[in-house]
Amino acid sequence: MNVAALRADPQYGAIKDYILGHTGLWYYSDKDEDFATRLSRRLQVRAASTCAAYFRLLTDGRSGRDEMDRLVGELTIGETYFFRQKEHFELLRHKILPDLLQRNQVSRMLRIWSAGCATGAEPYSVSLLLQSEFRTELAGWTVSILATDINVDFLARAQEARYADWALRQTPEEIKNRCFVKEGAIWRLRPEFRKGVTFQYHNLASESDLASSGRMFDLILCRNVLIYFSRAQTTSVLERFHGCLAPGGWLLVGYAEPNMEMFKMFETVSTGEATAYRKSSEESSSGSSRQPLAWPELQPQLRDVACMPVEAFARSAVGEAPAQEPRATLEDLRLLADSGHWGAAIALAHKLIETDGLNPGAHFTAALIHDHMGEVEKTRQALRRAIYLDRGFALAHYHLGTSFKGTNEQEQARRALHNTLELLASMPDEQPLPHGDSITAGELRALAIMHLNMDGNEIAHR
Length: 462
Description:
Elements: H1 3-8, H2 12-23, H3 32-45, H4 51-58, H5 61-75, H6 86-103, E1 109-115, H7 121-133, E2 142-149, H8 152-160, E3 162-164, H9 173-179, E4 180-183, E5 186-189, E6 197-201, E7 217-222, H10 231-244, E8 245-253, E9 267-270, E10 275-278, H11 300-307, H12 310-317, H13 330-338, H14 342-355, H15 360-372, H16 376-389, H17 394-406, H18 410-424, H19 441-454
Parallel strand pairs: 1-2, 1-7, 2-6, 7-8
Antiparallel strand pairs: 3-5, 4-5, 8-10, 9-10
């Protein structure tokens, strides 16, 4: 059946809803041409002449489950590479893993889940990091890395641990030569670096919870997966992740994941280069209480500021504190926000704006804080002020676009994202963007195009 005939089939809408509901791939909800093209390939392979005939195949017991696996292989994209998003691996190296090693000294166990592992580069990268840089500290420990995906073909390839040069393009030569065996044009990961990594089928869109089987994790990685889910499904997945994390456990998601409002159940930890989310160490696996982060990484004056009454805090922010107290800066604001003290951070943001209302960075940072607090209109007002003060503020245009996407205001979202692309057009890919935590013009361009493509916007392909 060709694509036009498939889309004209009376049962096309029903089978599409069934497939997207099963897989969670709502990325295809408004991409009928792409979805129908991929679906038609399976109909041709199975010689199904109608959507009804193919639906009967999909719901036919074990053979139907096998066919759904094949279809998922058509719908999912497994392009990945080792040590993708180096800022995340720096965060793992310097913050997350040392914290977990200290936290788990008694149990001497480390449990990691790579959710949406594709062909295995992510869990194997974590294994390489652990064995290359934490081997001494982990001597005598039990370390397990569970890697799951909905695509059974990807899982089979991951278990083979064989990769082309392209998948190792960010891998240091020393690691390639020490940890892989070259077999013609293919690099095979040595067995000792695959130890402790297991692969398993798991559908994140299902209601199944790995914690129900007694599995708890110290670290969950789910990067660049949630962007394919609906808002409701994303919220459900995050709730299940929270339930699967041990107290004090960490969650790493991709840069393009949904707005921060959805992560309110977690503490936010940022290094300026990357952001992660942590379950409060005060919570039980089923608890819901949240406690502030500990303060050791903050400057001493910020520890004092965060404990001040709001009135005294505001006075210190505008210079009415004793002369020896340093005047608060935009960097102080970012550090305070990164610590998770949102009320104090927004109070400081407002005071900074009062003293320097023409600073677009202050308005932009205030917008990010409002966004985390779920204050949509205040977020947009602050972003518009930042853009008014700096028409070339690409990150402000981008966040305005994602804010509109979050409330399904697609036309406004497209306009803001196109403005982002226009501003980035003359910038080299490697150029870092102000106030962007080291994000480059090329990375922001890719994110904006991804959001436009998710809406089927053809201009994004130009």
